[in-house]
Amino acid sequence: MLSVRDLTVSIGAEAAPVDIVSGISFDIGKGEILGLVGESGCGKSMTSLAVMGLLPQPGPRVRGGRIELAGADVTALQPWQRVEAGHGRIAMIFQEPMTSLNPVRRIGDQIAEAVRVHDGVSGTAALARARELLELVRIPDAALQLSAYPHQLSGGQRQRIMIAIALACRPQVLIADEPTTALDVTIQIQILGLLRDLCNRLDMSILFITHDMGVIAQLADRVAVMYGGRIVETADVGALFNEPRHHYTRGLMDCMPARNLGVRRLPTIPGQAPRPGAIRIGCVFAPRCAAVQDVCQTAAPPRLVVGQGHEALCAFPLQGGRPL
Length: 324
Description:
Rossmann fold; 4-stranded antiparallel β-sheet; nucleotide-binding; ABC_Ni/Peptide_Import; membrane
C-alpha cells in the first residue's frame, strides 16, 4: 500500500544540500502496521511529512527517491493534487491534538470539513458521517460531542477526534506520529487498542512513529529502526525483540526499564545522536557504538541480510549479543 524507495530529504541551497533523511526505503503491506522507531532528531517525523507531501515551504524538500501509494507515484504531487488525481487516501494523526484541532470550531464542523473535501457531500450528510466516525472511534454520546469544543474534551478524547478526522477520507494508509506520547499509560493502551482494531476492521495499513520500544512491542507487525536519518535495521517485531542485530537497536532495548532491575542503574547509550544533516565518513553510529572497529570509522557500513526479512546496516552485526 505504501512503498518508499531511496527517499532523501534535504535542506539548504540546491548547490550544497544537507541531507536530514538519507536514502531510506521501506514497504507497508495491506493491513500491516510498520513501526518506525528511533531517538528524537533521527528523521522520523520528517519522513512522515515527506510521505504526506506536507514538508514546510520554504524549507526541507525531497531531493531524491520515490513515494508510491497503492502503486501510484505521488512523489512530486501536492496534497490537493493527490486528492484531485484520486490518490488522496492517506491520512496522518499528529502528536499533540491541541495544536492540530482548531480551538474555536466545534468538533462536528472540523470532522465534517474533512468529509466534504473528500466525499463532496452536503453539510447535513457530512455531519451524519462525522457522527458515525465518532462512534467508530468509541466516543461516548457521539451526537452530543459534535457540538463540543476541543477544550471541553479530555486528552484521550481529543486524540480520538484526530483519529476520526484522519478516517474521514477512508484512508488506505494511516500515519500516526507519536499519537500517544502526551497521554497517560491507561489512555495510551486504549488508543493503541483502538488503532489495532481499526487496522483489522478497515483493512488499513499504518505507519506508527514512536521512540518507545514498549509501544512497538504491543502494536507493530514489523519494525524499522531509524538513526541519523538512516534506517539501520528492519525486521518482524518478534525477530527484532528476540535477536536484535544492530548495536543501536540493542542499546534502545537495554534502556527500557524492567520490573526485575531492582536498584540497578539503567544502561544508557553514551554520547548524543548526530545533529540533523551532520556529515561524517563511515558508520553514523560509530561514535556511540561499544563494538566499533577501525573500518567503521572510514567506510560506509553494508546493508546485510541477517535473517528472513531481517536486515541490518552494520559491518559487524550482533548475533546472540556478540558481533558476527
